[in-house]
Amino acid sequence: MSGKPASPTVRALRVIRDAAGVGRLVWIAALMIVSSLTEGIGLLMLVPITGLIAGKGALGAAGAWLEPVAAWPVGLLLAMVVALVIMRAALVYLVLDARYRLGLTLTKVMRIQTQNAILAAEWRWLCRQSSSDHVGHLMGEADRVGQLGEEALSIATGLITATILLFTATVVSWKLTVVALATAGLVATCMIAMRSRREVAVVRYSDAYQALNAQVTNGLFHLRAARIGGAEASLVEQFNHAARVMELAEQQYNRTHSLVHVMLQVVAAVSLGMLVYVATMHLHSPLTALVPVLAIMARLVPVATSLQQDLSRWGHDRSALDGLQDLIGEATRNVEARSAGTDAPALREALVLRGITLRYEGRETPVFDGFELTIAAGSVVCISGPSGSGKSSLADMLSGLISPDAGEVLVDGQPLAGALRVAWRSRVAYVEQIPYLFDGTIADNLRWGLPHEDDEALWDALGLASASFVAALPEGLATRVGEQGRQFSGGERQRLALARALLRKPDLLILDEITSALDSGNEAAVIESIAALKGSCTVLILGHRSTLQRLADHVVELAPGD
Ligand SMILES: Nc1ncnc2c1ncn2[C@@H]1O[C@H](COP(=O)(O)OP(=O)(O)OP(=O)(O)O)[C@@H](O)[C@H]1O
């Protein structure tokens, strides 16, 4: 049975409950209630203290039950108030600490959930996504979700405090409290009137934030190309535009926020004036009722103001949670079949593509239509063809990264479907045209994905990849490669990447135009390395280089729409 979908607020509260755990929330709620109670009791103490100051009998009929307390020495009463204030300060500290910790937990939980969902999604879905959007979600938006946890607790604290303050006021004088509630209605009406204005500002802010984030990440990722290609000026212009839009959106948001804040203070002052007028001119309330109720109302104003601010921030930050949940939902709907417990099929005979059709979303013509190919295990096959003919797509299918829309990819007769396709990837290694190297040592980079390989295995792999230059480095395997391997030449980076691939001892090694950055001497060395793999590993080379084609046992020439 599918019920009504939960409202965004309920969904947000559920996320907070799941991240924090019910036990922790109950503990925090207890702290908040006790802390607010101490405040209520402290304010209630004003009744006997005012009675003592105003003189005997000033408590009147309403405060008659506090007569015994009023008989206590004034010093004792004041000491009790001070003790309550200290106790409340300690409780407030605990509540604040719990609030911050809940915020941090929420950010962490949402970050991990989002990242896991993205990582588990199908490659074809991932290709359609914007990386900068994902960065924005994982960084800024996840932080805002953390704020949501703090705001939820702050709102709860405000509501509990307001309830206890109102209850205390009722104990002192219910008539005055009714008048106070009527004036509070004025405040609430004002807040509701401002709500839609605030929501529009929130949406605009979120959109502007995403756009600016995209500009920042895209700009930094592609700075090299922009600098060389003379596109810096347009990059700067786009960034400036996004920054201006962000400034305006933030300005509008802050203005709305401040306006609500100021309006609230004005309405609160008017309400307070009305309260004093009605109390003195119509209800003829005694001082012992009026002073505590006024003190309670004066305390209620900042409580209501923070409540309003927290509600406004809650609305603002909830849009971040909506965004993250949408992303998680979409990624989960596009999840890859799980491979845990599935044995990767070994390639001993042949890798076969049978009747393959592959069509990308939004493209009229398929890249492959009924395509057939057999690759004998241990052979070197070169896939050649013009740009856009489908070389990378073919490699993606053979490596198990994507599955065709029709037809089968078979490893020794086993169709690569579902979890088997994912498991097969553990037997495949891939060297990209522009290899990925991160800012760590050579050893760190080689051990990427294989953290337990010893130094001997690393040197063996470097030897196989013709990367003997590492031995000549003063720090050897401990040499840092710099961000994206910038401390090495293009050819050296590719040989390091080849060594990393060989360390995996793959059944299938895919090399994507890897010799394009090598000089003839290095190319010959790498070609020799690849030739040495014949028989022990199936090698798929993407590219047109004649040197590579000569090495291959078989050259597959692709034409667009094969
Ligand atoms: N994720 C994708 N979404 C939509 N179309 C895609 C996607 N990936 C590739 N294509 C399209 O599929 C066709 C084959 O692309 P592919 O990258 O496999 O070709 P290629 O031969 O490797 O090209 P190149 O030599 O230029 O790298 C191209 O027309 C390309 O535009």
Could you walk me through the main structural features you see in this protein, from its secondary elements to its overall organization?
- By secondary structure, the protein is an alpha/beta fold.
- The chain has 2 domains: 8-333, ABC transporter type 1, transmembrane domain (ABC transporter transmembrane region fold, Up-down Bundle); 350-557, P-loop containing nucleotide triphosphate hydrolases (Rossmann fold), CATH 3.40.50.
- It contains 18 helices and 9 strands.
- It has helices at residues 8-20, 22-44, 46-54, 67-70, 74-119, 123-127, 131-172, 174-221, 223-228, 232-282, 287-333, 391-398, 418-424, 442-446, 455-464, 490-503, 520-533, 546-551; strands at 350-358, 368-376, 380-384, 406-411, 414-415, 428-431, 508-512, 538-542, 554-557.
- The strands form 2 sheets. A 5-stranded parallel β-sheet has the order 6-7-8-3-9, with helices on both faces.
- Strand 4 and strand 5 form a beta hairpin.
- Helix 1 crosses helix 5 (74-119), helix 7 runs antiparallel to helix 11 and helix 8 packs antiparallel against helix 10.
- It is elongated.
- The chain starts with 7 loop residues before the first helix and ends in a 5-residue tail after the last strand.
- The mean pLDDT is 84.
- It binds adenosine-5'-triphosphate (ATP).
- The site of adenosine-5'-triphosphate (ATP) has 12 residues, from helix 12.
